[in-house]
Description:
Structural class: alpha+beta
Strand order of the largest sheet: 2-1-5-4-3
Oligomer: single chain
Number of strands: 5
Amino acid sequence: MSFIKTLQETVERVDGAVASVIIGSDGIAVEGYSLEPAINAEQLGAELSALIREMTGTSNSLGLGIAGELSIAYEKYVLIVRRITDEYYITLVIKPQGNPGKGRFVLKNAVSKIEKEF
């Protein structure tokens, strides 16, 4: 199944959003949509997989339960990573002047739409 429509809608619904990618916990990008050529879905997936593993390990070590979301604010972008299943995650990339609060809400709705496909 192609998830491109959901990824595109996710980006279009959030002010300042520039990309959305579905990645596996192994770092392989399942599908991505980007308005900026500098954001490479494959590279993003590979780099985020290390953070996802760290997030999972930390939540397990501290007995916090399953981590559902991770947000990271960098100088150029804000990344929001949301769990679809134990093996798959969806990421939204937003410019700093964008709206990460709405991004979190839109990602939650996107997961509801696509989780049955996983």
